[in-house]
Design a protein that fits this description.
Layout lengths: L1 E2 L27 E8 L2 E8 L6 H20 L13 H10 L12 H11 L4 E5 L2 E4 H17 L11 E4 L5 H12 L3 E4 L6 H11 L3 E4 L1 H4 L7 E4 L4 H4 L16 E7 L7 E6 H15 L6 E4 L7 H10 L4 E4 L8 H11 L3 E4 L1 H8 L12 E4 L6 H10 L3 E6 L9 E4 L13 E2 L3 E6 L12 E7 L5 E2 L3 H7 E3 L9 E11 L5 E6 L3 E4 L2 E4 H9 L4 E9 L7 E8 L17 H14 L10 E4 L36 H14 L17 H15 L6 H5 L3 H10 L6 H14 L2 H13 L5
Helix pairs in contact: 4-5, 9-10, 12-13, 17-18, 17-20, 17-21
Length: 749
Amino acid sequence: VLQNTPMPALQLPDVTLSLYEIDGGSADYDLKLELVEAEGELFASLQYNTDLFEAATIERLHQHFEIALRRLLAAPERRLADLTLLTEAERALLDEWNATTRSYPTSASVHGLFEQQAARTPDAIAVVFEAQRLSYRELNTRANQLARHLQQRGVAQRAPAEAHVAICLDRSIEMVVGLLGILKAGAAYLPLDPNYPHARLAWMLADAQPALVLTQQAIAATLPTEAEIVCLDADWPQIAMLDGDNLPDSTSDDSAIYAIYTSGSTGQPKGAINTHGGVRNRLLWMQETYDLTAADRVLQKTPFTFDVSVWEFFWPLITGAQLIVARPEGHKDNGYLVDLIEREGITTLHFVPSMLSLFLAEPDLHRCHSLRRVICSGEALPAQLAARFFERLSAELHNLYGPTEAAVDVTAWSCAPDDKRRSVPIGHPVANTQIQILDRQLNRLPVGVPGELHIGGIQLARGYLNRPALTAERFIPDPFSQTGGSRLYKTGDLARFQPDGTIEYLGRIDHQIKLRGFRIELGEIEAALREHEAIREALVLLREDRADDPRLVAYVVENREPRTKNLGDESEAGSRFLVLGSPLREFLAQRLPDYMIPSAFVPLDALPLTPNGKIDRRGLPAPDAEQPDRKQGFVAPRTPTEEVIATLWAEVLGLKQVGVFDNFFELGGHSLRAILLLSRVREVFRVSLPVQSMFEATTVAALAELLINHEEQPGKIDKIARLLQRIKQVSPDELAKNLEQRRKDGQRT
């Protein structure tokens, strides 16, 4: 507020009067800067709401405002974009927070570190998968034999290693042998999920042009590639005849260790190439910080197409701990995870926060007494979830942050039960890593001021496979480093430094999202939708219309006269929304992983625009929860089992009613809701079903039939359902009396 209206002069004989503003003790606004012009001078005051701002924050704001005024007055021609607000004290503080130099006493490759550990503890158990166990000696021998076989098949050692070997396997001991064997052969591994759509696998294989593809016989027949294939099952008798001793290692710090594909905004995924030096730094920092021992059991459950799997695989194997490998799809089954943690004595595991929330709801969590540490990353960790963690578990909780382009994680924070912060920080930079918070002109921003998070240091990826222009755009020269050739990676994440040096994550500056730990470029989904001949325009948003339940929603504008009618006949009963759902899901399922398929499709005549012609994202309507995509009319449950299942579906999906032929995913379901639903089903019927069953039995009727097929005793499912129906009809008082009487009679409740 600028007050430049002349104040009325008060005239009294022989008296000089000055105006003095009285502080009313309350703020008119959350934050107000008032400038008063009087007698040729400007007087300024800052008024703020103490419920929202701390005094130190306002003091910094005052300093930065004064610096801006002084620097502009000293150089009036200066552009505001070139104005820096840092004080010298803040500049020194930022340098101090980024003084992370740490010299580790080894220059070995990642597989070289494993070989050293195998020499120290050859007979200790290295890896466990269900009933299979391999010692460090056995694992090292198998990996060496495979490496020699790969070299004989044309994977030559180079420096730096540019040969890529694709590996397409389900989680197993063979997967661990395969990863180590590829590295020992002097190549980098390219993980491919066998469950990915055929078109996506074909694109990745064509883009990467791997020297070989490592897989199993059952998967090999489905792979869309002309590359040479090595089958670890069918070819193993031949491989096992080779020498099992360690191979010469010509790997350098800059040698590629893996290329992991992430979602791409242009419509195709992009492969980030990480190096041995970066991953080694990440693993050695982790060991120095968390001190894994031979008594530890680390659970490997993250799909190996995601970078968290890198430390899950290699951290235990270079420290003498045991690597426990979860069964395929086991990471989606919390009941199985509780059993596995108890059975194998798991001490260390990872969760994305959304999955941790479901895990903490498990009724048998008390059985997880072996847990020592839980590591979170992949999405923001809510403070309420951290507090709930300490209510249910006695383990440590660590919050890590980092993109695929920087060897998994670059900042870390250890949570505390008594921490009262409103948000959980992502912490401080790890060893040999720098974090810069910059504006668009690459100026360093003061403490408390949001900007784009940039990463520097040894852990940066080389860049993107076959994408030099994108690499140059995202990996830029580091203007703050004294070392030639240093780079910064532009993350696109919005963050700020806190006064204590911790970093607070605030979101994104673009349309990339994190959903249930998956990094998704919405533009890739939109591009896939526009490939459909009946779609003219498409826009995808992440919406959170229900608390703590974000989901993808696609808005589509149809072509008025598509070449062929692929979306159904609009004359059918129901709105176009009802027609759009299933065909579009099936179309996208041929191109995208399941986590990228929207939960709802909303038809529009046109995308709404703002007055300046841009798409008005805020003007897009929420999907109508009470008018889901139902191809058939509502059919009520016909049996007690269907009635119980329909009730569970309605609770999980937030709907008033569910018909027996309604499709779970067309009602707004997604993988996280499927996990929650199957957890409820397990609690009620005492039957465990894999999450994959929800993709096969997508209706209440189909799930009821599947449950009956899995019952241990004929009629057990129906008996439980009928009992629940009777309990539902009994008043709470009657139920309590009945239970008390059964206890007195010594009967099981």
